[in-house]
Amino acid sequence: MDFELYHGHDWDVSTAEAVEIQRALAERLRFESLAVKPETLAGVDVSFRRLGYKEYAARCGVVVLSFPELEQVDSARWSGRVTFPYVPGLLSFRELPAVLNTLDGLSVRPDVIMTDGHGYAHPRRMGLACHLGLALNLPTFGVAKSRLTGTHVEPGGEKGSTTPLLDGGEVIGMVVRTRTDVNPVFVSAGHLITLEEAVDLAIAAAPRYKIPEPTRAAHRLSRA
Q: Is the dihedral of CA 143, 149, 152, 154 positive or negative?
């Protein structure tokens, strides 16, 4: 399936140019209620292996699940070489080309995409979920295992407990307990979705484990 690029740009850029691209794209983000009730939810995960100096092999997995049943309806995997360095805060320039190539292998267009990483909870408000959502003009959100920026207090110990992730007084995400007495995850909106909807989807898609099923399945596929 071919996905139209709404906000394309060069990927072979310097880190300084990447930062400027992020700042420009952040002005285009829209956080609004989902237009339709999602029936499919995709998870995205990318893994890397060093090949040589400044060269890595990327392997990306995308799995589409029905929602709320969470049964697999489609999947795709892609592998190739990347040269953009590992720079915290610029991971979308390293991962997104692999994600876009992988999505082209799907036969089902997902209603919402969940990334293994951040969305708005990013120093320049442009995590992978935001970048991907803008590129495809699709609803996206991020579920990360660790905090990139901001401060928070611990949520309650019960599944479904939440507490805001704050940066300079701005709510940039939510710290969410997806499983009772297990470390929380960090949920943030990417594009064309509200933070509340992203949190609800993350909790609903995690019936058994800390990591929601879409990104768990994508993680397994990317490392298969």
A: positive
